[in-house]
Amino acid sequence: MDNSRCVVLVPAGRAIEPHCDYSLRQLEGAGYAVRRLFGFAQVDVARNRLASEALADGFEELMWIDSDIAFEPASVERLRGHGLPICCGVYPKKIEKAWSSHFADEGATITFGQGGGLVELRYAAAGFLHLRRQVFSEMEARLGLPRCREANGATTVPYFLPMVIPSESGHVYLGEDFAFSERARRSGFRIMADTTIRLQHIGIYGYSWEDVAGGLPRLATARIRPGGPSDV
Fold it and tell me: Do 192 and 121 meet the contact criterion of CB atoms below 8 Å apart?
């Protein structure tokens, strides 16, 4: 794999967590371009700008890493190695015993860590998300996304614009990353996650798989049913 073809995109408010920053610097040392964008209160605007600029600059792969995700650099290579249009790692929300992503089969028991593998998602959180250029080009073509002119003359495509969709109970508001997933699925793509990858969502401490099932201790393997009781 040619690391120069993949750009790492990091939207950040004011700072990047130390573990995340350390791993980002390792990626830079391995030949990845890492673009950090600070100061945006609207994360959808930041993502749209970062994606539009990266595609205009010719990158074939976009790797999203949020500033509060602790990860190992080898996990980026693992996602890229699958050769999939969309592939990500999963991690829990902070405080809540819930996933940041939505699994396609919420009733299935999923193995994390040793013995894990690829599973399908309905909606992917964008904190550790690898995308290939074809996803964006197909999304533009199928959904007719406009090119929006900014004050500085640059153009931005609203890939991550939040959206509202109908549901059985009325309507559902989709934030920027879930709205991207919805557009990707409407464009014919499956959203896959690699459950062997351990990530930590940094809050008052590093939240990982076990926090959905009950908390510490950390385990080499966890079998978790996203919508119900779990075996750990």
Answer: yes
* CATH of segment(s) 3-224: 3.90.550.40
For the stretch 74-107, pLDDT in tens is 999 999 999 999 999 999 999 888 999 999 998 9
Give the start-to-end residue ranges of the domains of the chain.
3-224
CB burial class (10 A; 0-12, 13-18, 19+) of residue 160?
A: buried
| Structure-token pair, residue 45 | 């605007």
Residue 210 near residue 105 (C-beta atoms within 8 A):
no
Q: CA quadruple 157, 79, 181, 215: dihedral positive or negative? A: negative
Q: Report CA-CA distances (Å) from 7 to 12, 30, 116, 217.
A: 16, 12, 27, 34
Strands 200-202 and 69-70: antiparallel
CB atoms within 10 A of CB 223: 17
Residue 148, C-beta contacts closer than 8 angstroms, at least 6 positions apart? 155, 156, 157, 158
Residue owning tokens 């593998």 = 117
Residue 36: phi and psi, rounded to 5, are -105, 135
Q: Are strands 148-149 and 206-207 parallel, antiparallel or unpaired?
A: unpaired
Residue 118 bridge partners (DSSP): 194
Percent of the chain with pLDDT over 90: 78
The predicted model scores a pTM of 0.90
